[in-house]
Design goal:
248 residues; six-stranded mixed β-sheet; Rossmann fold; globular
């Protein structure tokens, strides 16, 4: 059974139905890392937001672990699926300590032994106990993103939606966060759906990628095919050739 199945997904905004995503279908196996790539405005992040229940205007079918998603997401859904956003500073409450951020996330899902689990989460993301009572403004960008990842893991989900998780970080820190995500996926047996405009980033983390243009899939190919520039679509070939240094 697939971890996530999306079939015939359309997403629109406004009363005049300006479509951001058109007839998108894909499956993600359990334990797989699947990437969505394309230029800004191609609909990548909108797909993640639709899966997460942050966009109400959509049609089609979305399923998680065989269960069909309706217009609203249940508490059980959010115990399975969590999202890591692009800007770690904007996604963390500026007046809440790391301890409170993680405690509230666990309390919402009825997690027990919160005190012990906070320590374990901070260790998992490479932050020690000294970070527990710091505020976001006392953390670097990479440290804030580690806290955001820890928060996403607080309820022990099986699927993470990663919306450009490294694009707001310095290049030197990007590699650290990517390697952390690789390790966490292996240790926690996670499934990833990742959005990025950087093919090098996707190639580091994913097995397959879907190339998007104007809200639709151009094609889906393996990372090995991407690196060999084995694309059928002219748009995909152009995209790969323009990023050839980062994907090899």
């Amino acid at each position: 059974m697939s971890a996530l199945t999306v079939s015939g997904l359309n997403v629109w905004f406004g009363t005049d139905r300006a479509y951001a995503v058109r007839d998108v279908s894909f499956d993600v196996a359990r334990g797989e890392s699947f990437g969505l790539v394309g230029e800004s405005g191609s609909g990548k992040s909108t797909i993640l937001r639709a899966i997460a229940g942050l966009v109400p205007t959509w049609s089609g079918t979305m399923m998680v672990d065989g269960e069909t998603l309706g217009p609203r997401r249940s508490k059980a859904f959010y115990s399975k699926v969590q999202m890591v956003f692009q800007d770690p500073y904007a996604s963390l409450h500026p007046r809440q300590t790391v301890d409170r951020v993680l405690s509230e996330a666990m309390s919402l899902h009825g997690v027990k032994d919160i005190n012990t689990r906070i320590g374990r989460l901070l260790d998992d993301v490479g932050l020690g106990p000294g970070f527990r009572f710091r505020y976001p403004h006392q953390l670097s960008g990479g440290q804030r993103q580690r806290v955001a990842i820890a928060r996403a893991l607080a309820c022990d989900p099986s699927i993470l939606l990663l919306d450009e998780p490294t694009s707001a970080l310095d290049v030197s820190v990007q590699a650290e966060i990517l390697n952390l995500l690789v390790d966490l996926r292996r240790e926690h047996k996670l499934t990833y759906i990742m959005v990025s405009h950087d093919l090098g980033v996707v190639g580091h983390l994913c097995e397959r990628i879907a190339v998007m243009q104007q809200g639709a899939f151009e094609e889906v190919l393996s990372v090995a095919e991407m690196r060999r520039l084995e694309a059928k679509s002219p748009y995909t070939r152009h995209l790969l050739k323009s990023s050839i240094k980062s994907i090899r």
